[in-house]
Amino acid sequence: MAIERTFSILKPDATRRNLTGKINAKFEEAGLRIVAQRRIQMTTAMAESFYGVHRERGFFRDLVTFMTSGPVVVQVLEGENAVLANREIMGATNPANAAPGTIRKEFAESIEANSVHGSDSPENAAIEIAYFFAGCDITG
Ligand code: IDP
Ligand code: MG
Q1: Parallel/antiparallel/unpaired status of strands 116-118 and 3-10
Q2: What is the pTM of this model?
Q3: Would you say the CB of residue 93 lies under 6 angstroms from ligand 1?
Q4: Which run of H or E residues covers position 17?
Q5: Could you tell me if the CB of 57 is within 6 A of ligand 1?
Q6: Residues annotated as catalytic (active site), given as ranges
Q7: Chunked in runs of 10, what are the mean pLDDT values of the chain (140 residues)?
Q8: What integer pLDDT is reported at residue 140 of this predicted model?
């Protein structure tokens, strides 16, 4: 198995409830390393671009409003099979369907305010990482 990097966001519902440390502990306990991290306020343009693939979905406007409703923490996580590993640590999109012990099961408020984003493929991980971080910001 290869060491891989994935892109992660701690969403506004998580920062609002001061859950940054508890969620980061989940990544670290599962063997992922936080090799870059920054707290930012997303603009509407950034959120629209980031979630552009969902532009035609009924929840798109609400999602953009939610993602800009407070600070987020953008991160690069590194480890074995990091993309898939992180999707397992996060749990299903809808917390009602998320497995016990996952971040979304323990912390998500709703299918929208579900505490974390994680890349869904190595290709998208590379695109998302490059959108938020310069190579010199990431130290493995
Ligand atoms: P993912 O975050 O598990 O990859 P996606 O389908 O890529 O899920 O959706 C992106 C984000 O859009 C979700 O994390 C969630 O915040 C929001 N979202 C997805 N489906 C719904 C929905 O049916 N209603 C409201 N928000 C949704
Ligand atoms: Mg997704």
Answers
A1: antiparallel
A2: 0.98
A3: yes
A4: none
A5: no
A6: 117
A7: 94 98 98 98 98 97 98 98 98 98 98 98 98 93
A8: 87
